[in-house]
Amino acid sequence: MKVTIFGIGYVGLVQAAALADVGHDVICVDVDSDKIARLNRGDIPIFEPGLTRLVQENHEAGRLHFTTDAARGVGHGRIQFIAVGTPPDEDGSADLKHVLAVAGTIAAHMDDAKIVVTKSTVPVGTADRVRAAIETVLAARGRSDLGFDVASNPEFLKEGSAVADFMKPDRIILGTDNDETEQLIRELYAPFSRNHDKIIIMDARSAEFTKYAANCMLATKISFMNEMANLAERLGADIEEVRRGIGSDPRIGYHFIYPGIGYGGSCFPKDVQALIHLAESTGFEPTVLKSVEARNKTQKTVLFDKVRKHFGDDLHGKTFALWGLAFKPNTNDMREAPSRAIMEALWAAGARVRAFDPEAMDECARLYSGRDDLALVDSPEAALDGADALIIATEWKQFHAPDFERIKSQLAAPVIFDGRNLYNPDTMQRYGIRYYGIGRADSGTGNSS
Ligand SMILES: NC(=O)c1ccc[n+]([C@@H]2O[C@H](COP(=O)([O-])OP(=O)(O)OC[C@H]3O[C@@H](n4cnc5c(N)ncnc54)[C@H](O)[C@@H]3O)[C@@H](O)[C@H]2O)c1
To answer: Angle 51-60/33-40 helices, nearest 10 degrees?
Structure first.
């Protein structure tokens, strides 16, 4: 089937490569000409496990094309996906300017019937706005005779395992009341729905809301657990024991109850904010969502507070080794990453940062170019030499079982601030390392607060 995807970011590129891999003929359109040029050279602009091979093979096989030529894209697919960004506007609402711009572009170039599908995460009612935007442009062209439909198909892939998630989705949500649209999208996704029927059909508004409700539920689990962690510290309990204790209840489950230094990334922070804004626009007070967001904001400073408590407010002359920059493992994405809040707080207090991340170094260099209080080094060990402490911000696999003797010998003083609870406080005590985790007693020192 011929498919066009507008917006070749984390979602659009993964979707495009996966659809091409099962045999569909996919054209990707983006306004970022550098990105398109890189993709046409086989250079993949994001890190996502399995993606490079998938893109290169399907590009070479002639099933995956990249262009900035919107007219070519519109002419290609009967189905036109909109997968552009929906960043937060100044008031926290989702900014739909890219989505509506693509709707206008499709309407400006279409010469036959199209099915326009919103894949971006968009507020409830966006399908109606996309429909209206297309109708306006078609009317201005005098082509109101052209048939089109608009459907909602929110994406649930996770950065870090995006390819696997797309290939084996838990569910495919499709918001449509049009039988022909349903049948075509079913055909498109049939290769990803073989094991059992993954497709859940509903109206477009419910589909749009399902995406926000899912992300907000997950953000709620994280903020709840972080609140329990902060409380555990004050009550002399160990949140890791509590996590195992509550996770064993199948109604709660082990997923998404790891305490840490707050959620980041391009989705949870903006989607929680957008749903708060959407709720308020209806006159409804979303008290749970507001608390989830507030807890997350304060959680991002929890580890720095421990640093300040240990070293004092003035960190001039101190250097901190930082392991992990990406907002989570297996991605190079640093949008809203907790590492950024930590680095910025350290710099504001006068400290220097020496950082390592397996994939996000280029992104970090791009974000903080020209800073002389940041050094990016090419191994975890290189970050340690003579540093006053080690801070862990991302739970990459390679940080899980380091050589603690080496850490001890390389640091100026053996102190670890672990924002991901990777290590056992008893083990740290055995090695003689002062250890600060989240929601548990500091090693050998009693409670941290
Ligand atoms: N990143 C995720 O894990 C994830 C998961 C599920 C849903 N989503 C949602 O999917 C959407 C896209 O997210 P992303 O992370 O892929 O974004 P992204 O920022 O990585 O990519 C968006 C792309 O859209 C392009 N673009 C902007 N305007 C355009 C236009 N008029 N025409 C063509 N291209 C245009 C940009 O140049 C960019 O390459 C967002 O709504 C997001 O909330 C993201």
So the answer is: 80
